[in-house]
Amino acid sequence: MTELRKRMIEDMQLAGHTQGTQEAYLRAVRQLAAHYRLSPDRLTERQLRDYIIHCHRRPDTAVNPPV
Fold first, then answer.
1. What is the residue-level pLDDT of the chain in tens, covering all 67 positions?
2. Distance (Å, rounded) from C-alpha 16 to C-alpha 12?
3. Is residue 64 part of a domain?
4. For residue 38, what are the domain limits?
5. How far apart are CA 56 and CA 37, in angstroms?
6. 56: which residues sit within 8 A by CB, 6+ positions away?
7. How far is residue 47's CA from residue 7's CA, in Å, rounded to a whole number?
């Protein structure tokens, strides 16, 4: 497990997120990283914004990605 992933999990646990929410957030970050083929800590704010817009415009997206 990467340090970034470990820190994210710890932060979500401290925030009191349920296991299901944690899994959903981790899945969303994995999808974001796969989309750009970059580690999440290397993405720019612009790339994140563009990805969120991309997700909102996709007709098969049932829910909004976590922000």
1. 899 999 999 999 999 999 999 999 999 999 999 999 999 999 999 999 999 999 999 877 655 555 5
2. 6
3. no
4. 3-57
5. 20
6. 64
7. 22
Residue in the structure block whose two tokens are 């974001």:
32
DSSP H helical ranges for the chain: 3-14, 19-36, 45-57
> Can you tell me which residue has the tokens 């997206």?
61
CA atoms within 13 A on the CB side of 2: 8
**Distance of alpha carbon 46 from alpha carbon 22, whole angstroms:** 24
62 found inside a domain:
no
User: How many folded domains does the chain comprise?
Assistant: 1
Is pTM, for the whole model, over 0.90? Answer: no
Residue 36 within any structural domain of the chain: yes
Q: At 16, give phi and psi (nearest 5°).
A: 85, 20
